[in-house]
Design goal:
heterodimer; A: alpha/beta; six-stranded mixed β-sheet; four-stranded parallel β-sheet; 16 helices; about 15% strand; B: alpha/beta; TIM Barrel; eight-stranded parallel barrel
Chain lengths: ~400, ~270
Amino acid sequence: MTLIRPDERGRFGEFGGRFAPETLMPALLELEAAFEAAWSDPSFHAELRHLLRDFVGRPTPVYRADRLSQELGLDLWFKREDLAHTGAHKINNTVGQALLAKRMGKPRIIAETGAGQHGVATATACALLGIECAVYMGATDIERQALNVYRMRLLGCEVIPVTKGPGTLKDAVSEAMRDWVATVETTHYIIGSVVGPHPFPWMVREFQKVIGEELQEQMDGGDSGRPRPDVIVACVGGGSNAMGIFYPYAGSSVRLVGVEAAGHGLETGEHGASLVAGSPGVIHGSRTYLLQDDAGQVLEAHSVSAGLDYPGVGPEHANFKDRGIAEYVSITDAEAMEAFHLLSRTEGIIPALETAHALAWVANERDDLAGKTVVINLSGRGDKDVQQVAALDE
Amino acid sequence: MSETATTPLGALLGKAQRSGGAVLLPYMTAGLPGPETSLDMFRAMADAGADGFEVGIPYSDPLMDGPTIHEAGLRALDAGTSLDGALRLLEAVVTTTGKPSVVMTYVNPVLRVGVGEFAKRAAAAGASGVILADLPAEEADHFQAAFADAGLGLVLFVAPTTGDERLAAVAAAQPLFLYGVAELGVTGERTDASSRAGELAARVRAVTDVPLVLGVGISTPDHAAQAAAVADGVIVGSALVRRVLDAPDAPSAASSLHQAVADLAAAVHSTRS
């Protein structure tokens, strides 16, 4: 497997690249060079390791879900990213990129957010390192994720509402990129997933692969006293938690399953399943699978979970799909809601709605998975979704 | 040998360059204010002294465009403007006004029909070249080759952030012209004239004789005159598009455009010796 890094054009096979306005190109090249230098610098790793351990709380535990295992008839484990500081895996990337921005001398950081988890994680890293922070968030998402909006403000971050388009993650990414085109000389853009122009998909994967690397040690089938996984399942919006846990296992015998949002059902056209139901094209700076019409106009995605409500996906996932390294499936809003309740009741863990998609797939496939050791990346906790779920349940 | 001389717009820019003057190339989104009235906008601008046009094919997610052109694109799409509709308009613009024109859009709509097929259709419509706002030089080779096969030039960008070495490399690709980004930021109107366009133009001049056209943030005749003093062409977009978006009907949009372009053209052409 030659998956270590994309080629010099930032491609993963046919996917990736840098389809960005010229104004940003020098910054992308500078960022690539700065990341390469930092990533080969032991002092950068030492600082990051220290923050991940003492500030974020890594390594996150793996947990055997005994009651659900019994109920579903399989050996089910969770990688507890919900226990990381701020309640999701997003913090792994934002602490890394904020450290990098500081190293590059950028006094301001911007980000986009869908569910608000990446926004909170960015605001947190900026507060930690004393960097000015602004987060773009769709007006629709601001409404359905009020708790996270308030958290960002508490952390000293400016939340900028995006009213163009349907007011979800896609629009927030576009507005953050427009800000960056104007402010690139003094601002670093912390993109929240393995998406965007090179070097972002590669860099974000490198910051997130700690999830899978920890899992390899925690479930090594030997000294750890825990079995090796047969199957690893993760939800996929842009795909950062999935890439983080998949990457160290790519090319191994472990089955990797990415779960996209089928929204109201693939047949309705109202979903966020870019890999399952989309086609290749260019969105937000990279060539990947996306939801588009016959004329190449980007379609609006739909998902009950703001974090999966995105019409594109990381280019490395597109490559994994085409090369058969991972498989991609989809779960509807209704199935995810059911899994949200199942996990809350059975294990005492209220998951993020995004994460509930992964569990829903496992529950659906329980017969095929019988007796197998299955690990779900429990990418985030669900406090942020409680109000929305309460409203939907009524 | 540059392709610039072989297309009508290339010839026009070459002439401006030799005479020390500059040309005015207004941008307008195709299909505004409606499919039937869009051509009238271009005729009004041609009558008022525009030298050529940038015809925008609307795209849902225009990363390089500010609120005005974004809004224009969404309205045009809502009104049913398709790629073929936009190219038919461009053909009518070139035929009826006699002004050379380039297509401006983003990479994804081009990939969707296929780069070669897009080039063929754009060339058949009479375009001189193509501007893709999210296509940097690093990704351009395949596009430029397909466009050249169809007799079209590719426009490449240089920005205030583009360093000298990179600038020379972009120019060495021999684009139809260099689109000089006059302001950091996306398209849109600005109050003040660019403080960085002059410096960018001087750096371009130092390394290449590929024509330079300045755009982004150029809103008033005063800005346009300053840009024309240092470049071979000037693009004005948002300030004109806004007039069409704000007009109560097509005839008033056309007359508003006529007046604005007449003032801009006078400012740009005053630099001619």
